[in-house]
Each structure stands twice: as structure tokens, then as C-alpha cells.
Design brief:
six-stranded parallel sheet, Immunoglobulin-like, 2 helices, mainly beta, 238 residues, four-stranded parallel sheet, 37% strand, 22 strands, 2 domains
Length: 238
């Protein structure tokens, strides 16, 4: 499990890692033939996963609530991106080459065709078709993608989360502070395995919803109107 991961060379495998609440991207990959599977990239300040190179396989990951793009593919990249949960990313606009982008789960600026089939984008429709589904955005001329068929429900991300992870890599367990509800644009609630449970448009609704949650540990990604994000771990114990 990691705070931030970076790999070059070829044939490396990232599996069962969590990159959360970083001041940078969660995972940065270059080289060729890298495999990212069963990882979580949650609530990072830049991109969830940033990729350069060729022949990469991105499968079975949760890419959720990252401030910029969920997944960005740079020049010359070829990759297969499938069976991932990609949603809740790029809530606030980000400018690339004088163009403002919002709601991009994937930003393809590779100049190549990218396989994006069979991913879950947040709702049971194609990317960006219905709010709040993440979209697929295209940058560099010549970039293209194929996303059909798309998944109509979330995949179960098989990340092994240990007790050491829950105490060491996430913020300290604490009560959710709902006293500043007028400052937050949204609040998204996840299980520790990366499954989105509910989105609140204002925080006052959280207190009522929390009464119906089963005992356990949860993540909340609070997004403010000025672009700041806060990742909170909290426990429900009765």
C-alpha cells in the first residue's frame, strides 16, 4: 500500500495498493507493459492515475474523487482501460491549452486510440451521458477512444485493506464536522473498498443518512467551491 507510486521500465505490476489524499497524482506510470490492477486512487490533489508509454493494462481499479482527472493518458500512450470504477473526478474546472475541462473521468491527450470498454462511469449509462457520470475528454488532435460496451453497475474492487492501512495512510478517525455546510459544494461517501454509497449536495443531510449506515469504516470526500478537497475517514460504531 502506498501514498504515491511511480514506475518506469517495463512489466511492473501494481496490485492491492491505495493512493489517497496526495498533493500530487496517486499513481504515475511510464515505460511499457505496466499493469495496474485492484488499486484505489481516491481523493488526490492532481490526477488519480497518470500514464505515459505503451501497452499498459489498467483493470479492476477504483479511480474516485480526484481533484483533476481520474486517468490522464499522455502523448504516444497506448493502453487498455477496462473494468474500472471511474467517477466523482474533476468536479472543478481545469484548463489545458486554454480549454477548460470539467467532469473528465478520463483525459486522453495521447494522440492514439484508447480502449475504454466495460468501465463504470458513475451511473448506468455511457460516459457523460447523464449527470453525474464522468465523461471522457479528448485533448491532443488524433486522440480517440472506444468505450462501448460500458458497465451499468459498479465493479467490486478487490483491494486488501489491513488494519495498518486504516490507521496509518488515512487521516485520523474523527467526527464529521457539519457546521460549515454552506461552504462545501459536495460530499461523497465511500466504503473503504471504494464503493460510492451516496452523494450529498449539502452536508446537513449527512447526519440523517449516517443513522442508517451499518457499523464500519468509511471515507468521505468533501469538495469545496474553491477547489479544495478534504479526505476524511470516520467510523460508525453503535
Amino acid at each position: 500500500m502506498v501514498f504515491f507510486a511511480s514506475a518506469s521500465g517495463s512489466g511492473n505490476i501494481f496490485s492491492n495498493n491505495v493512493a489517497s489524499n496526495n498533493g500530487d497524482s496517486g499513481f504515475r506510470v511510464q515505460g511499457s507493459g505496466q499493469v495496474l490492477t485492484n488499486n484505489l486512487a481516491v481523493g488526490n490533489d492532481v490526477d488519480g492515475i497518470s500514464i505515459v508509454g505503451s501497452g499498459h493494462q489498467i483493470t479492476g481499479n477504483g479511480i474516485l474523487g480526484n481533484k483533476r482527472f481520474g486517468l490522464i493518458l499522455f502523448g504516444g500512450n497506448t493502453a487498455s482501460v477496462t473494468k474500472n470504477n471511474i467517477y466523482g473526478n474533476n468536479i472543478f474546472s481545469f484548463v489545458v491549452d486554454l480549454i477548460s475541462y470539467t467532469n473528465c473521468g478520463v483525459f486522453n491527450t495521447s494522440g492514439n486510440a484508447i480502449n475504454l470498454t466495460n468501465n463504470f462511469w458513475g451511473v448506468a449509462t455511457e460516459p457523460g451521458f447523464t449527470e453525474p457520470a464522468d465523461d471522457v475528454c479528448v485533448g491532443t488532435f488524433g486522440s480517440s477512444h472506444v468505450f462501448a460496451l460500458f458497465a451499468t453497475k459498479e465493479f467490486k474492487i478487490k483491494v486488501k485493506i489491513s488494519d495498518e492501512f486504516s490507521s496509518a495512510l488515512l487521516p485520523v478517525e474523527r467526527e464529521m464536522n457539519t457546521s460549515h455546510s454552506n461552504q462545501a459544494a459536495s460530499l461523497k461517501l465511500y466504503t473503504l473498498a471504494g464503493q460510492l454509497l451516496v452523494i450529498f449536495s449539502e452536508e446537513k443531510s449527512f447526519e440523517l443518512a449516517s443513522l442508517n449506515l451499518p457499523n464500519g469504516l468509511y471515507l468521505a470526500v468533501r469538495a469545496y467551491a474553491d477547489g479544495r478537497r478534504e479526505l476524511i475517514k470516520f467510523a460508525v460504531k453503535r
